[in-house]
Structure formats: structure tokens, C-alpha cells
Amino acid sequence: MSDIHSPASQLNSQSTRTLSILVENRFGVLSRITGLFSARAYNIESLTVARTSDPGLSRITMVVRCESLLAQQILRQVEKLPDTVEAADLTESNCVERELVLVRVRAPEGKRTTLLTEAEIFRARVVTATPDNYVFEVTGDSGKVDAFLDVVRPYGIDEMVRTGKVALRRNLSPKHGDADPVQAG
Amino acid sequence: MTAQQEQHPHPLAGKRMTGAEMIIQVLAQEGVDTIFGYTGGAILPTYDAIFRYNAERQDRRNEQIQLIVPANEQGAGFMAAGYARASGKVGVFIVTSGPGATNSVTPIRDCMADSVPAVLICGQVARAAIGTDAFQEAPVFNLMSPCAKHVFLVEEPEELEAIVRTAFEIARSGRPGPVVIDVPKDVQNWEGVFRGEGTLHFRGYENRMRELSRSRLSEESCGEFFELLGKSERPLICAGGGIISGNAAGQLRAFVEKFRVPVVTTLMGIGSVDTTDELSLHMLGMHGMAYANYAVMDCDFLITLGARFDDRVAGKVQEFAPKAKMLAHIDIDAAEIGKVKTVTWSHVGPAREALEDLMRCGDDFRKDFSKWLEHVRGLKREHARNYNRETPAIQPHHVLECLSGIMRGEAIVATGVGQHQMWAAQYLDIRHPRSLLTSGSMATMGFGLPAAIGAQLAFPDRLVIDVDGDGSMRMNLGELETATTYNLPVKVLVLNNCGDGMVRQWQKLYFGNRFSGSDKSLRQKDFVKTAEADGFKFARRLSDKAQLEETLEEFIAFGGPAFLEVMIDPEACVYPMVGPGMGYKEMITGDFIAGRNPDEDLSMGAPPSDSF
Fold first, then answer.
1. B400: which of A168, B22, B190, B427 fits an S-S bond (Cβ 3.0–4.6 Å)?
2. Helix (H, G, I), strand (E, B), or coil: what is residue A166?
């Protein structure tokens, strides 16, 4: 599916912001960053953390529900932490976003074929199956994932796990890469 | 690594030593001359290393690191804070794990909230025991993380010496703050090779600090500033604690003198300008001077320097400085720009350099603000501070006026928190920066006495006075003994109104005189006996107004620790007062300070620009 926000997903994302935070890969950094959000009573909608190509750094992608100005303020607070290398609000920038969902959908005899046909529209893969259900894997932006879940919900969702959003800028500006240009200094 | 270190490697570089010894070596390298702290199980190796370090220097006392032991770890933290606030150097305190660490949370948060550079070294249980609910184990990293500027848990002993050095760098760079190092006991006992140099690298932070230290005002930006100042008829500077922590008081005074712009200061900014200066309008805010708050209401251009529009300053934000069409803001912390008030012009960088740049670029700038200054002089005259001078009961304002006359703006004053803190801020002349040490943002009761002890250790020859209240004094009463133990000539003045006066004031105003929890009139404490028992050779109680001046003079002149309790009028209130969440126009000035008719401010019949 497209990387471009569909109108529907734009509507959905109006009140959420996607924040990308590059941090030193050190003890306690994640709790420090999330602590900043909880100390200001902001709810984190989703959170993913993993090492970057530089093993000394981790990238945190966070979706929070707040207005743009508030997001700016919290990013400035995040930028004050010694562990933070870079923090940006990617909500309005040109970036690729992906989320992965694993969902166990009830698939009784007689409904299986239609379910698979509908899943095909979303390029959902069946990763495992039992006589009673399928487990689908879908990757896409949050809008696509939501749309897929809307389609399969009538069949009955038994269990589900979402990774939360990861996001990457389409163009790498020298300042925002994993490797820091001034690192040699 | 500095160039100097490169040229002269540390004399002990390459030597094997324990982690504890490395900690002390790095502290010495950082120029630490005083450590505050309380020992205990998990920090024993480090305390032993201090002992041995000093024993090796028995004949060179000036090379020793003096160890000051308080009654409680919170006292150690506030001593380190007082030391740091008065001297500008990083305050250091060392405590044990568990309760030692949790008792230190309050001073760490207090340092953070007032941007005070401090390093806390906490013992921690051995690495293998972490997370097992071991004896005296507390989750220091988790507890301190949201309270401190940064927290380290030393997991790799090889990183220990670099971490200690880095902690100092982080504590004093940018907007200063406290850094906590949690050191497991086995890391203190570990033996390794001392390198004598090296820090950890925080690429983002280092870049930001480098940019910040280089951050200068461009000609263009200066030009814009002076364009605003040129348009202004009624400019006003609001100076905050950033001027003091940024060592920019000299630059600010020169700026004020050159452009003839009057100044209000926040509580934290007191001392950034000489409060007795004709252009000083003293403190603004909830309990600011009436004339300072009126000037804020009247100004058309507010120039905020190293201050952050705290709610005690701004009150109802929408109504703060309502006529100020232009607002300039200089701060070292980018997160403060636009956080509360939208600004017209701003600069992120050290105040010192920014003011120097403005002075240079504005060398030719001339504008006559004499009408505004005349108006401001009028405000100062008409709405001067005042109190009930007729009553036989001793008024706290009177005590502080007398004290101010004796100290002549030259003492270092620490305060507790509450009414006496506000009276001290209002009635003491403070001529120099780093002379009023007060817990501004956290407003921690019990701050005054330990902070005064810390300041006295930083400046053994200066007059250091703790202006305290009976409630605040009770909080860290144990530290009275610390003052006499080290024979520190601090002067402890307790204004006793038999209760938590500020709380009572709010209960009078907003809670129908129901003095829930705040009335201490039936308490048995005899403060004078307490002070005597703790070794004070001068310990007196004063209840007779006629003896006030004489007693104060003897108290201040006493050559050693001195304690004076003054029984003040328990009904005395702090005025002016801008109620919480209210605008300045709702300021109450009380019975003794002339208030201004709400319509009187700038109207005067003529358009504002012609009014001065």
C-alpha cells in the first residue's frame, strides 16, 4: 500500500504526533525518556525502541496524543537530556511509516475463503492457521492496519498484538543520521 | 580532556588503585575542597578513601578535602547546595544506599528546580545484589531520574573515573543542575588502573553545549532588539536566577546603567542588580513589591533575562504585563523560550555574552526614557513597602529592616520557606549576586540552616545569616549541632510566629480561618534551650521591641555561631499579594502599602505614550 497518508489516516493522526528520538544506547535511557512524558502526564500511545546501525545509539519512535505546540515543548525537554542525540516531530515531515500487527481472526468453515480474499486486499499474510482461526500478519502505515482490522473485526478477533509505529525520514539530512558527523571531534 | 591535562598527565596516571580512591582523586582533580555527607554500609570504602587521602596530607591541610557530616542526608544536600549557590562551584555530597539516597531526593529535586550545580555520589549494594531487595537497597536510578539533570549507575568499574568527571561537566554546563552517581559497593572496592583523564561522550549533549557556548548575537539580531527598544516608551527588564548562575550580574548592571532601563527581579534574581540602586524596582510577583508589579503592568516592552515566567511570577499568564506589546527573552535553555509567554524577540545562549553583544552593537543607541523613569520613581515613592509601625508587637518587617541596616547588603543570607522568606526578600538590601540563598521553585522548608552552613564553609570569613521561621527551623533542627561542631560562625535568626504563617495566611484568605495543621502555639519547643544544648554560646529569645536593635547588633557581632529567636506578631501577613492564578490588577496591598486605583494605572487622561 501507499506510504502517503490516505485522507482517513490523516484524520486519525490529527491528534497524535509521531516523535523520533535518537539516544545514546545506555542504561536507563528509555525509562528516563518515558519518565519525562509521564511526569508531564502525557499518554504514550505507542513506543518502539531498537538499536540503530551504530550499536552505540538507539532510536525511539513514539506516538503521543497531543497538539503540535505541546509536542514542540516536550521535544525541547527531551533534547535537554544528556542521552538525547536528536529529537524530532516527524508528523508533518516526509517520512515512511510502518507498523506490524499479528491478529488471530476466527475463521470457521464456510467463511475462510471470503476472509482470505479480503485479507489479500491488504496483502495480509497468514502466518499460522488452526481449524478455527487464522493468524494474519499485516504491515503498513497505521491507517492501513486500522482499515484491515475494521474489515476482519466482524469475523471475530480473538487476540492481537501491534508493534506500534516506526518512522524514518525519506531524505537523510546530514544532521539527522545515526552516525554523528561531529563524533570524531 | 583539556590541553593542560594533555601536557601534564596526572601524577598518579597508570597507578593501580580502588574505585573508591579513584572517586576521591577525581574530586581532587575537579578542585573539590569540601564534601558534605553521611556514611553508611554501602559507601564505607569511599569514606575510608577520604580518610586515607586526608591522612596522607596531614601536614598540608590546604590540600585536604574537608568532610562535613550533617545530622541527616537532606542536610548534606542543602549544605552542598548552599555552598554551590554562594560560590558558583559544584557542590558535592556523598551518602550511603537506601535511606541515605532517598533522604537525598529532596535536595536533588531542589537543586534541579533552581538550576544549582551539584554532584551526589550514592553508595549502592553490590552489583550482584541489585534487584534482590537487598539490605538498604533503593532504586536510586528510578527515583532520581525524573528529579535530577542526569543519573549514572556505574555498571562497568572501568568507566567509573570517566563518569565522575563527566558528572561535573554535566552539572555545570548549560543550564546547571544536579547529577547523581550511583556506585555499587563492589565497584568502590574494585581495583584497576587510574588513567587520570577522560570523560564519557554524549554526542548530542556535547554538540548542544558547544553550540550554546558559541552562541552569540548576530548584528542583525541585535539590530532587531534595538529597533524594539527604540519603539518602546516604557521598557522594563525582568532579571532572573539565570543572570546570577550565568555570572552576568556585572554585564546586566552595565546594561542597565548604559540604557537607563529599570529592572525588576524574580526571587531567584535578587542580587543580580543592587537592590538599593535607583533603577532597581526589587522583586516582582505574588509577593513582589507593589511598585515592581505596577511597573510590570505599565511597561510596553518587557526584557526577560534568565527568568522563566514561573506561576508565582506571572500569576494569570494572559493578564501578565498586559500592555507589553513586545517581549524579549534571553535564556540558556531553549525549552524556556515560548513555554509560558509568546515572545517577540529571543536568544538562546549565555546571558553574559548576550548582554556583551547587545552592549557592543547598541553602543550608539540613545533613547530618552526619563518620563518613564519619572513615572517609576513615582511608583516607588507612592507604593513603597510598609507595615504596621505603631503596634507594640514585634513586626517581622521591622526585624529585617534593622538587620538590613546592620549588614548593609554585604552578608550572605539563606532563608527557610514561608512568610519569613518573603519578608527577607522584600526587606533586606542585597547588593551582590549569590547573596540571597533561597529555595525558590521547590520552596523546601528546612533549606535555610543547612544552606547557610554550606555557604559559610565556602566563605569562612564572610557574614552568613540564616533567616528562618519556626516551622522551617524544626525541619532540619538537627543541623544546629552541625554549625557548632565545625564552629561555623553562622547567625541563625528565627522569626517565631508559632506556626506555619504562610499557610495560615492562605487559610485566613481562602479557608475561613480554619487553621488546619498550621497552628503551633501549643507546641512545647524551647528553641533557645535547644540551641544551648547544641552548643550555641549565644542563644537568646527576644520579645521586647525596645531591645530589638541592640540585641540584633550583639547577635551579628558575636564571634561564633549565634542563635536568636524573635517572637513576632503571629498576625503579620505578607503584602502585597497577588492571589494564586490571579492577575496583577487583583493585587492586595494590605493596610499599610498604598494601592493603586485600578483605573489609575496608565490612563491619566492622555494617550499612554504622552503620559510620561
1. B427
2. strand
Domain tally for chain B?
Answer: 3
- Active-site residue set of B: 73, 135-136, 185, 502
**Is B72 a member of any domain?**
yes
CATH number (domain holding residue B270): 3.40.50.1220
Contact: B141, A31; criterion CB under 8 Å: yes
- All domains in chain A, ordered by first residue: 7-93 (3.30.70.260), 96-162 (3.30.70.1150)
The reply to whether B493 and B409 lie within a common domain is: yes
Element (H, E) at A27: none
* DSSP conformation class of B503: H
Residue B594 lies in a domain: no
Residue-wise pLDDT for B121-176, tens only, equals 999 999 999 999 999 999 999 999 999 999 999 999 999 999 999 999 999 999 99
- Chain B residues whose CB is inside 8 A of the A22 CB are 204
Domain shared by B190 and B225, yes or no: no
CB B571 within 8 A of CB B396: no
For the stretch B452-495, pLDDT in tens is 999 999 999 999 999 999 999 999 999 999 999 999 999 999 99
* Alpha carbon separation from B365 to A128, B48, B253, B259, B360 (Å, rounded): 77, 61, 17, 8, 10
Across the interface, whether the CB atoms of B205 and A83 are under 8 A apart is answered yes
| Contact across the interface for A73 and B334, Cβ inside 8 Å | no
Selecting from B153, B203, B335 the residue whose C-beta is nearest the C-beta of A77 gives: B335
B202 touches chain A (CB under 8 A): yes
pLDDT tens, residue by residue, A16-38: 899 999 999 998 999 999 988 88
Q: Is A31's CB within 8 Å of B149's CB?
A: no
State which residue of chain A sits closest to B169, comparing Cα positions. Answer: A82
Report pLDDT digits (tens) over B70-80.
999 999 999 99
State yes or no: ipTM above 0.95: no
Range of lowest pLDDT (B250-259, B404-413, B532-541, B602-611): B602-611
Instruction: Show the 3-state SS of B412-444.
Output: EEEECCCHHHHHHHHHCCCCCCCCEECCCCCCC
- Reference B44, options B103, B112, B94, B109; nearest CA is B94
Interface of chain A toward chain B, CB-CB under 8 angstroms:
22, 24, 27-28, 31-32, 35-36, 39, 73, 76-77, 79-86, 180, 182-183
* Cβ <8 Å between B150 and A82: yes
Domain span at residue B549 reads 396-567
Q: What's residue B7's pLDDT?
A: 66
CA–centroid distance for B79 within its chain: 12
pLDDT at A180 over 50: no
Residue B1, pLDDT above cutoff 50: no
Neighbours of B23 (CB within 10 A): 26
Interface probe, candidates B105, B144, B145, B175, chain A, greatest A C-beta count within 10 A: B145
Does residue B371 sit in helix, strand or coil? Answer: helix
| Structural domain includes residue B584 | no
Whole-structure pTM value: 0.93
Among A40-54, B95-109, B157-171, B211-225, the minimum mean pLDDT is found in: A40-54
> Helix, strand, or coil here: B192?
strand
